[in-house]
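In this notebook, the sequence line spells out the residues, with the fold written below as integer tokens. This is how one looks.
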Amino acid sequence: MAKNKNIRQMIILESTEGTGYRYTTKKNKREHPARVEFKKYDPVVRKHVVFKETK
């Protein structure tokens, strides 16, 4: 039986503005072992804010 060697991991990005809005995406565990931050659009506050990875 073949073993799944998936390097990409599903992560959740949560808004730092405290709105509770979240994005889900995938990241490569080998290229980015630490938690990532992206600047994305938060529709609750209607502007671009920093989203941090949560577990």
User: Anything to note?
Assistant: The radius of gyration is 14 Å.
